[in-house]
Amino acid sequence: MDRIFTSNLILLVKSISAFLGVSYLFQTDVFSEFALGIDHLEERKFNILKGSKIGLLTHPAGKNRTGESTVDVLRNSPLVNLVALFGPEHGIYGNEKAAVPVEDKIDARTGLPVFSLYGKFRKPTPAMLEKIDCLVIDLQDVGVRCYTYISCMRYAIEACFEQGVKVVVLDRPNPLGGLKTAGPMMDEEWMSYVGAFPMPFVHGMTVGEIALWSKKESGILNISDRDRKRGQLAIVPMKDWTRNMTWPKTGLKWIPTSPNIPTLDSVAGYPMTGLGAQIGGFKHGIGTPHPFRFLTYDGKKPEELKNALDLLKIPGLAFKIKTLNNNAGKSVSGVYIVLNNWQDWRPTELAFHMMQLTSIWDNPNPFVTAKESEVTLFNKHVGSTLWWNHLFENGKLCDPKPFLNKWESQADNFTKNVSKYYLY
Question: Which of 60, 73, 158, 384 lies in disulfide reach of 94, CB 3.0 to 4.6 Å?
Answer without folding.
Answer: 60
